[in-house]
Specification:
heterodimer, A: Rossmann fold, two-stranded antiparallel sheet, 8 helices, about 35% helix
Chain lengths: ~375, ~140
């Protein structure tokens, strides 16, 4: 004879078996869907079908958001740097009616119901101010760092005209010059270095014309090594050789490229953008603010002359524990303080308003490594 | 509730806590100093502003000392915590005008409180302290304050 307890469990099991089976099917379907290669895009118009003149400007914007990107403004309100930048980049894309704009948002990998991974990258593709495609993708597919982005870039981009002005923007933490593991919070073993970034730029330029302007909205990107790595693929670079607050460079000058680049003068536009970014940062930020425009052709001589010294410094610091190495203004190291150091750069600098460097009057525009004494 | 169900609930809760802990641990330290900056700005009296800042910096230093001695903390985390503690000590010195620093003037205390927050919110390398260590710091801070 079956006990009342057995009957209770038997009836409960029977009563719940159908919903449980249904739940399992749903979970399995979600799992299969999350792992499928079918892109969950919701393209509003097929690329190329919207008509109009070919774009005059091409912007590729990569926003890294897979890490600690929380910051607070002067009122104490919390913001996520990548989300704020994404909103600003979308405004840029919508207001430029003569541009095509690729915005790649690299997000932290999240899971549905804790187990089912979700796509962790999103492309927003705009042309003539209209969103033509919004497509999620997996960031970890491919041998090279920017394989997924390049696949999407090549799929959507228009055929280039000789007059096309090409602009590339990167927002994120300091791009490592060596090592590079742990850059992505979701992929601890995956590496990302300046050479990977240069590789991505190379594939955009496809060994032809250089990108007209590269904006690196990160800390410590104004180094001889970084500029040398980007030199084959960029005409002008805007970067911060020192620390940069997570509120980043303000994008407002990019909102009307038809005005800012009316004469096609990229050098002038770069300097206007740098001045605007500097002024906006110094309004609220108490830490150091350094924005530098590098005319890549003109800095080539200096970069070449310090190339071997910097490479040697990199070899030295590579094996050292993080606590024993630090960044410094290259001008503080006599090995780098060469006559051509100021050639081809426009430096905007304000020292930190507190701390041991608050009396530092100027910055050379170049950042180096040194061992902590 | 059967033992099996209880076990399932515990496992799911642990997963959620670890998952949330990644963000909570790292960001709570920033939030802690941001709250301090808000308190400083809401206070008119410079001596109170100074006291708030000094207490918050001291409490964080104490929390780091306590967590540092824990066997759960890795060698890498200890090095990162040492750098952070040095940075906090420099700020305490500047606030008080010791160790070669000029004392932060009364009319600059609001800006100094922003400086403390912003110095941690730079686009340099991401925080490398592990989830366990970050959570320990948060717990100790809650207990200390």
């Amino acid at each position: 004879m079956k006990s009342p307890l057995y009957r209770y469990f038997a009836s409960a099991t029977h009563a719940h078996s159908m919903p449980m089976a249904g739940g399992a099917c749903v979970a399995l379907a979600l799992f299969l869907f999350s792992c499928s290669s079918i892109p969950p895009s919701h393209r509003t118009t097929p690329p190329g079908d919207e008509g109009g003149l070919p774009p005059r400007y091409s912007i590729v914007c990569i926003i890294h958001g897979d890490g600690g990107y929380l910051y607070h403004d002067a009122r104490g309100d919390a913001h996520r740097a990548d989300e704020v930048t994404l909103a600003k980049a979308k405004t840029v894309a919508e207001r430029n009616t003569q541009a095509e704009v690729f915005i790649f948002h690299e997000r932290r990998r999240r899971h549905f119901l804790l187990f089912f991974p979700r796509r962790d990258g999103t492309l927003y593709y705009y042309r003539h101010g209209r969103l033509l495609a919004e497509e999620s993708y997996w960031r970890d597919r491919g041998q090279l760092r920017f394989d997924p982005e390049m696949e999407l870039y090549n799929r959507f981009r228009v055929e280039e005209s000789p007059e096309l002005v090409r602009l590339f923007l990167y927002f994120g933490h300091e791009i490592p010059e060596f090592g590079g593991a742990g850059y992505d919070a979701s992929y601890k073993n995956r590496t990302f270095t300046v050479d990977d970034l240069a590789g991505g730029l190379k594939r955009i330029t496809r060994d032809s014309t250089k990108v007209d302007l590269v904006v690196l909205s990160t800390c410590f990107s104004g180094t001889p090594h970084t500029i040398a790595a980007l030199a084959p693929y960029a005409r002008y670079v805007i970067a911060s050789p020192d620390n940069l607050h997570l509120s980043y460079f303000d994008l407002r000058p990019f909102e009307r490229l038809d005005i800012g680049l009316r004469e096609g003068d990229v050098s002038r536009f770069a300097n206007v953008f740098a001045r605007h970014a500097f002024d906006r940062l110094t309004e609220d930020i108490q830490t150091a603010v350094t924005v530098v425009v590098y005319d890549v052709d003109r800095v080539r001589g200096f970069v070449h002359s310090v190339d071997s010294i910097y490479d040697q410094a990199l070899i030295t610091v590579k094996g050292k524990p993080p606590a024993s190495i630090e960044r410094c203004d290259c001008a503080e190291d006599p090995a780098y303080a060469l006559p051509g150091m100021n050639e081809g750069i426009a430096v905007l600098y304000r020292p930190p308003r507190f701390g041991r460097l608050k009396h530092k009057k100027s910055h050379s525009g170049w950042e180096c490594w040194r061992l902590v004494k | 509730m059967s033992a099996r169900t209880t076990l399932r609930v515990i496992i799911i809760m642990m997963c959620v806590l670890v998952y949330a802990g990644i963000a909570v641990g790292q960001e709570s330290v920033q939030k802690y100093f941001n709250d301090a900056a808000c308190k400083v700005k809401a206070t008119a009296d410079p001596s109170q502003k100074r006291e708030i800042l000094n207490n918050e910096l001291q409490n964080m230093s104490k929390a780091l000392d306590k967590v540092r001695s824990s066997p759960l903390v890795s060698k890498t985390d200890r090095a990162a915590m040492d750098r952070f503690k040095t940075s906090l000590q420099e700020k305490q010195d500047e606030l008080a005008g010791t160790n070669g620093y000029a004392r932060v003037s009364d009319d600059q205390l609001n800006d100094f409180s922003d400086y403390v927050v912003q110095d941690m919110e730079q686009a340099d390398k991401t925080i490398t302290i592990s989830v366990v260590t970050a959570l320990l710091i948060v717990i100790i801070i809650i207990l200390v304050t």
